[in-house]
Amino acid sequence: MVPSLRAESLFVSDLNDIPANDFEDPDVPSGPLELPLDAWHRARGGRMVEFAGYSMPVQYEGIIAEHLWTRESAGLFDVSHMGQLYISGEGVEAALEAALPIDLSTLPLGGVRYSLLLDETGGILDDLMVTRWGTGFYLVVNGATKWDDIAHLREILPDDVTINHLDDSALLALQGPKAAEALAPLVAGEQALGDLSFMRGAAFKLGGVDAWISRSGYTGEDGFEISIPAESAAAIAELIAGQAQVRPIGLGARDSLRLEAGLPLYGHDMTPEHEPIEAGLAFGINKRRRSEGGFPGADRVIAALNDGPARRRVGLSIEGRMAAREGAVVLAGDAPVGVVTSGGFSPSLERPIAMAYVASEHAAPGTQLSIDVRGRKLSASVVPMPFVPHRYYRKGAA
User: Fold this and answer.
1) Which InterPro entries match (predicted)?
2) Residues 6 or more apart from 190 whose CB is under 8 A from it?
3) With contact defined as beta carbons under 8 Å apart, do 75 and 246 qualify?
């Protein structure tokens, strides 16, 4: 069942649509800025750091404890630094398909799909989520790149297409195996929360507040992302955190959770220097677009699909207790064959893990490699990702 309520009526009906190419360059704020929940985080003991231009909580009680709580119960994350955009206007579907390697003809109302913003050579400018909202599309882009993304979209989208930056909306994520149990009693809508499966969303009332809720996230667990008016963020966060299953979780655990889930982080595991196939993101190039092309960098991306890339993003299991961090060189014997892009200690597996780009001939699972960490060679082996199995909620799945 897909939502019958047009979600744009909740958030953008009172906004002035402006043609994409009629914007002046955005005034990019200087940071660190405060999120709507800044005082709420501090009152709960959040240790604040600067991230993506905002002051954000890196932890509350401790990264390992917060990580394991999310894997066992439900963690509440403030991700309001992310960019929330609404793209609409005449020809919007065709315009977005010219900008993204996505097949929007197969995306139903309320459907959520992963996609990529690419430059003219196929390099990754950002990864993002696209949702069909009635006559337009709701995009969630990374916080560190949102101003560049907005400028890029303004440049390449035609005049008949409009962009609204939903900067009056906050974004929360409730993640973990008990997320649905915690959230369901708090919402009301035309459909039950449990009717949502992975990568589907709908409009709900949450604590009496209009909310857009999708069953999605960045931890590998079942969970939800919740867009609400910024003015209601503290009340809604307090409501959700008041559930026995829920604790607030900081950036530190968010990073270790996504690493265990094998999920790349923009600016680290994917950059304009990487194209989607070597990054392991071929699923973000929809089937029709692989044959038709017509998106930025299509020639390079399709060639990599057909011929295979020269390097690949892989998972590495590391022997011992020492972690390898971003920038560490990966070796086959004494020869450099790659570089670590994310690494750390896995609280769930109780051992160090990493993601790295390595030459394709060394990318097969089981390949024995080593990592140079300050002159010390750490033994490592290529392993399939995710490191910890995904537990997304899919209807009909065992």
Assistant:
1) GcvT, GcvT/YgfZ/DmdA, GcvT/YgfZ_C, GcvT_C, GCVT_N, TrmE/GcvT-like
2) 3, 4, 5, 202, 203
3) yes
Question: Cα-Cα-Cα-Cα dihedral of 386, 389, 392, 397, to 10°?
Answer: 120
For residue 194, the model assigns a pLDDT of 95
**Structural domains in the chain?**
8-259 (3.30.1360.120), 310-398 (2.40.30.110)
Q: How many Cα atoms within 13 Å fall on the side-chain side of residue 178?
A: 17
Q: What is the pLDDT of residues 56-94, one digit of tens each?
A: 999 999 999 999 999 999 999 999 999 999 999 999 999
DSSP string, 346-371: ETTTTEEEEEEEEEGGG-STT-EEEE
User: Was 97 annotated as part of a binding site?
Assistant: no
d(CA 341, CA 383): 15
96: CB partners within 8 A, 6+ apart: 87, 102, 104, 130, 137, 157
Residue 315 contacts by C-beta under 8 Å, 6 or more apart in sequence?
Answer: 262, 353, 354, 355, 382, 383, 384, 385, 386, 387
Cα→Cα distances 20→102, 146, 169, 313, Å: 20, 15, 20, 35
pLDDT digits (tens, 9 = 90+) for 308-343: 999 999 999 999 999 999 999 999 999 999 999 999
Contact 343, 326 (CB under 8 A): yes
Q: What integer is the mean pLDDT of 108-133?
A: 98
Verify cis geometry, omega within 30 degrees of 0, for the bond prior to 389. no
Structure tokens at 286: 């929809």
Alpha-carbon distance of 118 to 99, in angstroms, equals: 8
Radius of gyration of the chain (CA): 21
Could you give the 3-state DSSP secondary structure of residue 173?
Answer: strand
CA angle (219 as vertex; 6, 84 as ends), nearest 5:
35
